[in-house]
Give the backbone structure.
Amino acid sequence: MFCWLSRLYRGLSRPTRRTTQLIWGSFSRSLVLSSQRRIPELSSFVARTNTCGELRSSHLGQEVTLCGWIQYRRQNIFLVLRDFHGLVQVIIPQDESAASVKKILCEAPMESVVQVSGTVISRPPGQENPKMPTGEIEIKVKTAKLLNSCKKLPFEIKDFVKKTEALRLRYRYLDLRGVQMQYNLRLRSQMVMKMREYLCNLHGFVDIETPTLFKRTPGGAKEFVIPSREPGKFYSLPQSPQQFKQLLMVGGLDRYFQVARCYRDEGSRPDRQPEFTQIDIEMSFVEQTGIQSLIEGLLQYSWPSDRDPVVVPFPSMTFAEALASYGTDKPDTRFGMKIVDISDMFRNTEVGFLQDALSKPQGTIKAICIPEGEKYLKRKDIESIRKFAADHFNQEVLPIFLKTNNNWNSPVAKFIMEEQGLGLIRLLETQEEDVVLLTAGEHKKACSLLGKLRLECADLLEARGVALRDPALFSFLWVVDFPLFFPKEENPEELETAHHPFTAPHPSDIHHLYTEPQKVRSQHYDLVLNGSEIGGGSIRIHDAELQHYILATVLKEDVKLLSHLLQALDYGAPPHGGIAIDYHRALRRVPCAVQ
Ligand code: ASP
């Protein structure tokens, strides 16, 4: 790097500061322009003149050479050729003199790969296909070459042909030939390119690769271990470049980013694979709002142009509010059915389990209202909801079916006093035919259960035709003010970090850290899209003493394993913070256009 820079300087007649700035300025401007200006040349360097999908009436009369896969053949006269760019109709010559061309094109099995050369002609009047972008033209073939034949396929290469996930994975290379998969990978590549452009060219970030062979460090997810050649010695694969990017801040690289591979040995979950990609970012001298604006701008800039634009700023919700209203730290805010606390309504209740819950210190009564649930939820749905609550949360759920005249149908209807009923209607804004699901217990547990049931019921309603969530809507949300620590599930006396151990405490709660650490909120923020966490980050601790205290005293971690970081913080580490966007999860939320 230095050597390259010094060569650049030496090549200049006057290596003044001003000249250098001009060079850098025009360098970055030309990068911006070059990526925006040019339509990519899709047929350079290869054995074709055009792609199958690009030919139009404007190409009439042109001699072209195309390479692609045989998608259809009809009556040994028409052949449809496909490449990543689209489909084009080819006319198989019927005259004697072209018998060898006809033989190749008629005998090659479907999905064989061929090269054809010929003339672009217009289709006879009335035979145009307006559904095909190339539907006005066809190719009058003169020569053809079979580049490679295709064996009998395990499934047809057509997106509408259903295949199991296992089969798709086994023949991934065939699955990738489909329109949807092609679209997904190309969309990903375009978005990453725009993100790089935004970060590097518009905001001066530096793309830095960090090591993937590292040592074990405490906290967080389980790491993969890689045996070395030296018996008994192993590497760990990093769960993220977190420590490296913080060290880069200490090194003065104050705007870092990386399209980073992360490895977590957690077993596959529906929304997480053992290895996945993050857009990993870190900045010095920044606060939470700075990171949030950066990410809003980044997503707005790189968002696919064929989608509704991203609207910024994204709304923000505290962790406490997300838990109380949606029962989760990643609320799907595309629909209502929020959790409502109805404890006050039931202070004088005669219903045993409600009474019981309220008599406990953290006891609450909570409810959600399922609009028109009476119409859409079957008895067996309610039964399985109650079973789910009992099996997974050890909680009771009471369904209340609201009838006309407030004549309710519920196992406890006779115990619900009139003013309680009216109060419920008011608080939950219920209407006739709605179903209320009610539960009682400790705040977090009751909210978590109802949060799960809210999503479950939304799926059920949608499966029965109710339009609850707009599939075209992107509902971004910042969740902020998380607790810095959570009690460990297996031992609630001990604490673990909510994000990671490098997250800074909220400045207004720092006084609790030494006495009641569980009360401290953090400077951690998550980005949620349509109910899925797609990113998270925090302002970091840059004070070695504070970091040591949290690691050693609160989290009871072996600080020796992080001595490299603690030491670095002592050498003038700047205040810093960052975020990582989980690229795969984010993209999974972008519904793709199936052509
Ligand atoms: N390294 C964190 C993660 O992977 C993100 C961050 O705090 O920047 O979740």
Observations:
- Residues 211 and 241 are 8 Å apart (CA to CA).
- Residues 240, 242, 536-538, 578-580 surround aspartic acid (CB under 6 Å).
